[in-house]
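hi support,

uploading two proteins for the ticket. first:
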Amino acid sequence: MIPEELDPDKLVLTKEEIELIFEAMIHRWSKNKKDNLKYIMVLKGMKGAIWLTPEKILIRIWSDILSFFNKLLYYNAMMKTKQEYKGDPRKCWAITFEKFKNDLKEGII
């Protein structure tokens, strides 16, 4: 069991910090408003929903979202490698991990 303070699925960001992240994304996508308008509008709607949601509820929902996405990323990496190499899952995981280590070395991550 992971100690609560080290659990990557437990949200520790505040409501204001989440709003700042959304603002940064909106700012980045605003550099090309024509192509990104629909994404900007959705992010603004999500930011509004965050603003309206009590922080306790927000933490619960976003903690579950983080947990879900962490699992989704893991399974996606496994399936992608399995499709690419058509091998057994253990070899696929080893290949995925090697790609990750190489990306870390090269500064891609």
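and the second one:
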Amino acid sequence: MKNTRNKTTQLNHMKTFKPHQINQIKRYIRAYYKGSFFVENTGPFVFDFGKVSQSSEYDHAWKKFIVQINKSLKADTHFDLNLCD
């Protein structure tokens, strides 16, 4: 008998993080590159092209949170070309 899980349930499931789990959020974004996640006591966030999208509905504190994650992702993505020889 085949496993007949509901695919819409799987698609609607979002990974949930606590606000202080920035490294785990970055790892999740790097792994999936496009998708969404949920931060407890805040709400859903969307990322695309490896960067968290900003929406006008976020307040100033959460925009700072998004900027912090995106800056950290950008800093982590550089690599040394000499290592590729």
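thanks. also noticed: Residues 13-73 form a domain with the so0334 like fold fold (CATH 3.30.1910.10).
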